[in-house]
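Database export, one record per block. Field names are fixed; values are copied verbatim from the stored entry.
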Amino acid sequence: MPDTPGGHPPRPPSSALIYSNVGELRAHLVPRKANRGEAAGRSPSQPNRDPLPPPLPKKQLQRAESLPEQGPSQHCRGNPTPQASSILYSIPLPHLQHEKGAPSSIPPQDRPSWGSKKKSQSLGEPVARSGPHKAPPPSPAELTFRTADGGLGQLLESSAGVCGVVLGCQAATLARLSARIQEQLMGPEERQQLLEAELAGKGWAALSILDREPCCESGDAWYFRVGFAFEQTHLVFAAKVPKPCCTSLGVQSSLGVHCSIQRLIGRFTNHLLQELVLPGSPEEQSQSPSGEKPAYPATPRALQVLISPEVPYQTLADFVKKSHGLHRTSPGHYERLACLLLLQVCMGLEHLRVQNVGQGDLRPENLLLVQCPCPPQSQQGKEASLGLALPRLLISSFFKAKDKQRPCSTSQEQDWTKGLAAPPSLMADELNVGILIYQLLHVDISLENALGFRSNRLPEIPSLSIYSTGLKRLAMLLLHRDPCKRVSIEQARSILQVLLWGPRQELFARSKKTLTLLRNWVEVKRALLLLKFAENSAGAVGSPGLEEWLCCQYFKEVTEHTLYQVTQALYTS
């Protein structure tokens, strides 16, 4: 390289010149004065004939291409911005080692193609374009039979991973199946909202009277079957006419939607139609549920009418009265049916507990029974003829409902001494459910008599089936004198689920009860339940009904920890 006129070799270019234009770089390399002989035969406008400067080091060239050209260079000298950091330090370590001669474990097609980047690339571009990007594996809830094998590949690398995927798929399938059955039982939520909007502002004129006499009479209201035309279909609703002093619209309208809570989709105030006949004499109609005579007539000039999409056919009190013979002839079937009815009561009370509402008047007269739509074929034969078809139970009376200051009041309820002096409407729901067990099993007991019994001296429940002992144990736990030992509604629900679907006590006769055993039991039962649904669907048994939905709810939520506590309370004397 020629010397400068001062006799010193030219200064090497600084690092800033590396990022300059190649023409500017050559201008610094060319001597300030050239020999006339060397300049002969070429014009200054032909600089491209000169030999190119020596190539820049590869490492410097890589760094130059990874940074932007536009804008000031303070990002290069100072701390890089978060976007710059994501590009500068996203180079895989094996690739850097490969540049130094070490073997690389990244396939050539997966390595970042740094040389193919355009120099105008900015730091705002996604990091995924600067290196390999693997999409996260799909979650078990997203997997279907048609999921591509490419998405399954990452989930099949280990046996433990496959087991987790299968268990996750089972839980997700149970959740979807439960939601579909619930929609069949209650109707689509969107349709119910449309009906509520359609019924707004309408009265008797928009309804057709189907029966002159009530289809059901509860402790707080009469129910009449009425028709309503909607979208070229004729729907059947229940017109609820509350009895005097039994208005509960304010509480009931704010309870939300639940399968065991009566739903109201319309309301209006009007006279009672002349063609509607209330049972009993006017003197009997003027009697309130407590037996006291109100100060105003039973049929006021204008009364409140509530519209419900569920049409009851009887109350739980009517069912108990008519089932004495059924209990004697088919004790196992009947007591299982009693467990399913009690389970629906507990689920409804749990829903009220979440909203800090105590029912206050939980009696068989205020629990409605509604026929389920499209019962499975398994219930259309012998069970239906015997009256063992499972109805849907609704809590409908809220005129004595009380707002609770605390959501869970099991261990903090009033003791038995205070409870004896308190009116029944203020008693805890746990005590009412305990009394309800005796009533369903046709054992005479009243709340006052139950409060007078000492612990373990409650009326004897005959052992007629495999459910008798469990129901007796549950009643004793609900009616315990010590509030600290009294189980909650949530625990009562779990005990009923174990009585219905296990695990039963014989499981622990041969194996020690551990969390591992219970976890394995839940996983196997979930798989067998899904196989049962698949076999029933293939065999055209019919769509799943209310009992299947209740079973899905159980296996969707149960854990080995809750099972351990519940079985300890149920099977330990």
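Remark 1: The longest helix spans residues 159-186.
Remark 2: The longest strand covers residues 221-230.
End of record.
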